[in-house]
Amino acid sequence: MRLPSRPLQAAALASAATLLTGCFAATGQGSGAPGERIRVTMMNPPRSGLSPLSDDAFKLSRWSTAETLVTLDANGDPRPALATSWRQNGRTWSFTVRDGVTFHDGSPLTAKAVAHSLTKAATASPKPRILDGVDLAVTASGRTVTVTTATADPLVPQRLSSPQLSILSAKAYRGKTVSPVGTGTGAFRLTDVDGTSSAALDRYDGYWGTKAKAPGIDVTFVPDGTARAAALRSGEADIVEAIPVSQAALLDQELITEVPMPRTNTLYLNTAKGPFKNPGLRAAARRAIDAAAIAQGVYEGRADVARGLLGPALPWAAALRAERERTEPKRAAATAPGGAAITIGTFTDRAELPEVAQTLQQHLQRAGFTVKLEVREYANIESDALAGEFDAFILSRATVLDSGDPAAYLYSDFASRGSFNIAQLADPTVDKALDKAAATKAGDARRRAVMAAEAAVLATDAAIPMVHERVVQGDAPGVVGAEHDPRERLLVTPATYVK
Predict the structure, then answer these.
(1) Which of 116, 85, 107 lies closest to 98, judged by CA?
(2) Do residues 35 and 124 share a domain?
(3) Which CATH number do you get for residue 83?
(4) Are residues 440 and 337 in the same domain?
(5) How many CA atoms lie within 13 A of 464 on its CB side?
(6) pTM of the prediction?
(7) Please, what's the b/e burial string for 375-391 (b: 16 or more CB within 10 A of its CB; e: otherwise)?
(8) Which range among 248-262, 312-326, 377-391 shows the weakest confidence by mean pLDDT?
(9) Where is the domain boundary, 174, 199, 220?
């Protein structure tokens, strides 16, 4: 049974919270009957005009409007999409482009069109994040696209699964701008974007795959978490992403789903200078932290206690970690802190982190440390964190980046040459394990190499994983087939509709 009709909802909500109702002017006209447009409320508005070369690309993927050559399965292994097959020959990968596909502007998907789109991404300034440090050249012949990298790269198919490398028609590219409006290949055609407030999509009846069940999608961007929760509670939205933990308990629990995220709340310890240069004090900090108290107290039970850097969003990690525990490198013995003074930094942009910092302060002070906190906005603290200006830093870190492979995250954060090495770690054993993981062919062997690298990092106590975060998604009564995707690449698919 659906919630009351829109006019009644609006009147009821206006009497209780007039300010919130103004955020949700629905563009679709549903009545609860089959064939209703899907009303989606999202947290972050577009930052780059929905350019697929930015993080906005993940919105395009979640709306099933822009597609890539390759998709990923639950384990992060590549599967066909706009490409039906591929093969590697040294530095060169050849992809066969799917036949019978048209862009939303009616033009056909060809190898030449794919090469044009990928070349635009590879030569963009700045490059899409997935291509950081990667040089590639793309050519087309017949229905084959050839991708050549400067060095052999076992992750090319996974890289091409990134929404930032979505394939758009030639009309999308005008000078330095890229517009996905009417230029994708997905089940829904993007028809309108109203700045940072809303977007509209219609079903694309020429879609190469299964035709979408819903006639369209109406998207509203609402940064305020309380307002997003109110939209679900009042029936103003059918699907609501990223409901804050503080609001989740106030909602009908049958309407919400907790999705494990590939995101770990981690305490990074400065191994280069200060008290935590001492491995014994790092071990003392690890022993002092009660991760279960953080999961229950700060996250109200809506987070998982971390056993490692990689969490339940990667279903293979726990079993492979158990295999390694019998031979895991021995950690240093704890040293009594003796009042050692430390400064912990974190940021306000994620609402839970300042509270996590306060909880950690209590844990570490009880263990004998003297703890000072420094909390700022992320934009004002990142450079100091990367420069090693703090003894410790609390970070909510995505462990699976755009390729769907955690080796990139581990290398970035813990290799001596890593670009995001907040722990200032320079450990030959860790570097060796990370290099092996990066060079191993995708599949089971690579996953085992990744877990060996995780074990090497944890043995140093340079990072103390605390909790794996979850995201709370709301689906109104009558919503069928909404995706709950840990990688946040899927949300509305051709199978999604409102009864």
Answers:
(1) 85
(2) no
(3) 3.90.76.10
(4) yes
(5) 25
(6) 0.80
(7) eeeeeebbeebeebbbb
(8) 312-326
(9) 174
